[in-house]
Design a protein that fits this description.
The complex is a heterodimer of chains A (481) and B (372). Chain A has 481 residues and is an alpha+beta fold. Chain A has 5 domains: 8-101, Uridine Diphospho-n-acetylenolpyruvylglucosamine Reductase, domain 2; 108-225, Uridine Diphospho-n-acetylenolpyruvylglucosamine Reductase, domain 3; 230-336, Alpha-Beta Plaits (2-Layer Sandwich), CATH 3.30.70.3450; 343-432, 2-Layer Sandwich (Alpha-Beta Plaits), CATH 3.30.70; 439-480, no CATH class. Chain A contains 19 helices and 18 strands. Chain A has helices spanning 8-12, 14-24, 34-37, 61-74, 126-133, 152-158, 165-168, 171-174, 202-206, 240-252, 265-275, 294-309, 322-333, 335-342, 357-371, 399-416, 435-438, 441-454, 468-480; strands at residues 30-31, 54-56, 78-81, 98-101, 108-112, 117-121, 138-139, 175-181, 187-191, 215-222, 224-225, 230-237, 259-264, 284-291, 315-318, 344-347, 375-380, 385-392. In chain A, β17 (375-380) and β18 (385-392) form a beta hairpin. The longest helix of chain A is centred in the last third of the chain and has 18 residues, at 399-416. Chain A is globular, with a radius of gyration of 23 Å. With 372 residues, chain B is of the alpha+beta class. Chain B folds into 3 domains: 7-173 and 349-359, Uridine Diphospho-n-acetylenolpyruvylglucosamine Reductase, domain 3 (2-Layer Sandwich); 177-262, Alpha-Beta Plaits, CATH 3.30.70; 265-337, Alpha-Beta Plaits, CATH 3.30.70. The longest helix of chain B is centred in the middle third of the chain and has 15 residues, at 225-239. The radius of gyration of chain B is 21 Å and the shape is globular. Chain B starts with 6 loop residues before the first helix and ends in a 13-residue tail after the last helix. Classes of the chains: A alpha+beta (481), B alpha+beta (372). Chains A and B meet through β9, α9, α10, α12 and α18 of A and β7, α7, β9, α8 and α9 of B.
Chain lengths: 481, 372
């Protein structure tokens, strides 16, 4: 994965830049020791690493603004960082960049149950947002699987989803307002406790902009009352086609499950060996979860079972107790851990139209044979967001490159059938060079114009999202300036 | 007037334009500052391109009549989740609203509090920018974080950043049944409290409105029949401290009731300007009192509709508040004099102006409609 050559002039000015930051910020907020900055050399895409010039960990919005003003004046690129759990390299530094981490900013600022929102500093983790309101039986809906560790700042940057977004939407549908600092240190308030924008929907374009438009320091998030209960059903099929048809029929029948998860045979085998959840050995397995009162759940699951039986399932298992519900989810939740036991793996997250599911799985199987690399599929079937896990051996020369080539072919296939490169992980550096398969030059130009507005010098996370060749002129324009 | 039949024709039209263009869909929502310019209609770009009920996805050309989209969805027992308002009666317009117009104005209805606004269901757009370039963003899948989300930027930009040619939605099943719970005689403050109790319950309230004129506060529940009956009962128990709760569950009656709220029927045919105020629900009663006019509350109080004497500068009456007020109905003279869209703080206004300049460098798309 190419990254721009670090700016030698910035590297040579390191001590002056660090000095300016230290003079303006509290001692503890600036890290510049070579050994210490190494802790920030990568995110969860660990195949790529590069220690930054320095790391700044502000405690307030004002300190974020001070740090950005200095970096802006010095022409130093800034890479914003939440908890560093990006699977796409969104927080990967370059040697000439300053990491700006919001991890020390994790306070709850306001909780309002009458108006159903919470305002937090964005270093707060996703799960601890729910943690702050669950004593009143409320929750924050987006639930990326890294929710124990990932920060709201990163959720906003990547517009994170989760397993339950078929019903509750993704981050952008649950974000009401932000305090954001732009690269020149300007602090902006966008949105708030009221709904929708009075003018252009800037909140909508900030969410998912991968830390390239500004650093979001505070967020107003919609909170919801927890449902009375939830219960899953497990349904096994002897073909992917039939499982796909069943998903479509459930949706057409007017049921809106809170989650529909799909696992294929390689994934079932791996998770069963690892977690022993008691899954049936079959070609495709669905976990469908519905919410409501016990009677409402019974009614919905009854309807789902009726539809499933029309498709001759090899197994149909309703959870009769809390314990059984946990066992049904156990395998799905251990899927990634199980794959990690077998081998190194790369997790993709392209989205496809649900109707293309059987074709795409068949093609992935064929490609797997061609590349000689195993792949297991686990999948948010209700919304078409796939998570193929490609197995490779990081210690075997050439295997990572082979895996990346296979991954790129799968993502191209997703685009070809009418889907997209990434459903919830973001582009980062990982899918940056594939953007031209999904977007025409005019499409990318329109997106880059938005960055021109918020960050004319292209200093915020500049080497991400857009292919380097496409963004070069803009990035180098600022170097010249 | 021109009415291009294809996206390419539209693109050529814009690229070759010598002056300002006034862009319209069905022309049923004359909101904003009056625009002078050559009329360009997107009505020639019509038709549903793709509808997959099993994937909850619909893609249509921007000029497709809204009625055609809603009809196709209804035939499969589905609907647009955000319940778009019909502005015709309130604004005294006629014609067929288009799906592109709904997006350009980010039109939502009472269900916005539960299912989100138009922008939340919108998953893809194609548009022609001010230079004539054709741009696509998003797509036809509901989970998509590939590149920046210009889909939301286009929703509610009233044709000032680009002319929409195609829009894609996530749709939802239409419910089997619906019920309205009604409480009489509540003051505005009590009503907002009662609606907060309902909206903060696990019973999935999809509408919460307070109509001071009728002296009624209404909450809506939708879903499978048995579930609606169950939740209506539980909710009625929760709301009992606020007064007698009546449950109405006739499909026609419930449908008409919420269509009247959605379309602000209470102000139809009455003289005066109509404003729409978005605010934190618990701030609504005080703010509504400051309007000095007739009001009704939707979105649990988060949306105030106010009817005030013609030419009133309502923002001067309201003073500073967290939220925004939009002048929806007024004479052309008033709309030219009083900014219809809420003025934004300087850093935000600067970003908005810069975006307009980037997407429409010649300033020819609906110039002045949103900001002077």
């Amino acid at each position: 994965m190419d990254m721009p050559t670090p700016d030698a002039a910035i590297l040579s000015r390191k001590s002056k830049i660090v000095e300016r930051l230290r003079a303006a910020l509290p001692q503890a907020a600036v890290i510049h020791d070579e050994a210490e900055v190494r802790a920030y050399e990568c995110d969860a895409l660990t195949a790529y690493r590069c220690p930054p010039l320095a790391v700044v960990l502000p405690a307030t919005t004002e300190e974020v603004a001070i740090a950005l003003r200095i970096c802006h004046a010095e022409g130093v690129p800034v890479v914003p960082r939440g908890s560093g759990t990006s699977l796409a390299g969104g927080a990967l530094p370059t040697a000439d960049s300053v990491i700006l981490g919001v991890s020390r900013m994790n306070k709850v600022l306001e909780t309002d149950y009458d108006n159903r929102f919470i305002r937090v500093q964005t270093g707060r983790t996703n799960l601890s947002v729910t943690g702050a309101v669950e004593q009143e039986d409320f929750f924050y809906a987006p639930d990326p699987s890294s929710q124990l560790a990932c920060a709201i700042a990163g959720n906003i940057a990547m517009n994170s989803g989760g397993a339950h977004c078929l019903k509750y939407g993704v981050t952008t549908n649950n974000l009401m307002g932000v305090t954001m600092v732009t690269m020149d240190g300007t602090v902006m308030e966008i949105g708030g406790a009221h709904l929708d924008a009075g003018g252009y929907d800037l909140l909508g374009v900030i969410c998912g902009s991968e830390g390239q438009l500004g650093v979001v320091t505070e967020a107003t998030l919609r909170i919801l009352r927890k449902p009375e209960g939830a219960r899953p059903v497990l349904i096994g099929f002897d073909s992917n086609e039939v499982a796909g048809a069943c998903v479509s029929d459930i949706i057409k029948a007017g049921v809106l499950p809170v989650a529909i998860e799909f696992m294929d045979r390689p994934c079932i085998e791996a998770t069963e060996a690892f977690a022993k959840a008691g899954y049936p050995m079959c070609e495709a397995l669905l976990i469908v979860e519905v919410e409501g009162s016990p009677a409402e759940i019974d009614e919905q699951l009854g309807l789902i079972a009726q539809i499933a039986r029309r498709h001759d399932p090899v197994e149909l298992r309703e959870a009769q107790s809390e314990d059984e519900a946990k066992r049904i989810w156990l395998g799905r939740k251990s899927a990634f851990g199980a794959m990690g036991q077998i081998n190194d793996y790369m997790c993709l997250d392209g989205t496809i139209p649900v109707s293309s599911l059987p074709y795409v799985l068949k093609r992935i199987g064929e490609m797997s044979k061609d590349y000689g690399l195993g792949v297991a599929n686990v999948f948010h079937a209700g919304d078409g967001n796939m998570h193929p896990l490609i197995l490779f051996d990081a210690n075997k020369p050439g295997d990572l490159e082979l895996c990346e080539a296979f991954g790129a072919d799968i993502l191209k296939l997703c685009v070809e059938v009418g889907g997209c490169l990434t459903g919830e992980h973001g582009v980062g550096i990982e899918k940056r060079d594939l953007m031209t398969t999904q977007f025409a030059p005019a499409d990318l130009e329109a997106q880059m114009r938005v960055k021109d507005v918020f960050d004319p010098a292209w200093l915020l996370n500049p080497a991400k999202v857009f292919p380097l060749s496409v963004s070069r002129e803009r990035r180098e324009r600022q170097v010249a300036a | 007037m021109s009415s291009p039949a294809t996206e390419t024709e539209l693109s050529e039209k814009v690229a070759g334009a010598k002056g300002p263009l006034r862009v319209v869909g069905g022309g049923t929502r004359p909101v904003g500052r009056p625009v002078a310019g050559e009329l360009v209609s997107v009505k020639g770009l019509a038709g549903i391109d793709l509808y997959e009920p099993g994937a909850l996805t619909l893609v249509a050309k921007a000029g497709t009549p809204l009625a055609e989209v809603e009809g196709a969805l209804a035939a499969e027992g589905q609907r647009l989740p955000f319940e778009p308002m019909d502005h015709r009666a309130l604004l005294g317009t006629s014609g067929d609203p288009t799906i592109g117009g709904v997006v350009a104005a980010n039109v939502s209805g009472p269900r916005r509090i539960q299912s989100g606004a138009c922008r939340d269901s919108l998953i893809g757009v194609r548009f022609v920018d001010g230079s004539g370039a054709v741009v696509k963003n998003g797509g036809r899948v509901m989970k998509n974080v590939t590149g920046y989300d210009l889909v939301k930027l286009m929703a509610g930009s009233w044709g000032t950043l680009g002319i929409l040619t195609e829009v894609a939605f996530k749709v939802l099943p239409a419910p089997e049944a619906a019920a309205t719970l009604a409480i009489g005689g509540l003051g505005d403050r009590q009503a907002v409290e009662a609606m907060a109790v309902g909206l903060g319950s696990p019973f999935e309230v999809t509408g919460a409105a307070h109509l001071p004129d009728e002296g009624r506060t209404l909450l809506r529940i939708e879903g499978f029949a048995a579930s609606v009956a169950y939740r209506a009962g539980r909710l009625a128990e929760l709301l009992a401290p606020f007064g007698t709760v009546e449950v109405e569950d006739g499909a026609d009656q419930v449908g008409q009731q919420w269509a009247r709220i959605r379309d602000v029927a209470a102000f139809v045919g009455r003289p005066g300007d109509v404003w729409r105020i978005s605010v934190k629900p618990t701030d609504a009663p005080d703010l509504a009192a400051r309007t000095g006019g007739d009001v009704l509350f939707d979105w649990g109080g988060g949306l105030i509709w106010a009817l005030v004497p013609e030419g009133t500068d309502l923002r001067a009456r309201l003073g500073a508040f967290a939220g925004h007020a939009t002048l929806v109905r007024a004479s052309a003279e008033t709309r030219a004099r009083i900014a219809p869209f809420h003025p934004e703080p300087p850093p935000v206004a600067a970003v908005a102006a810069a975006l307009k300049a980037k997407f429409d460098p010649r300033g020819i798309l609906n110039p002045g409609l949103m900001t002077a």
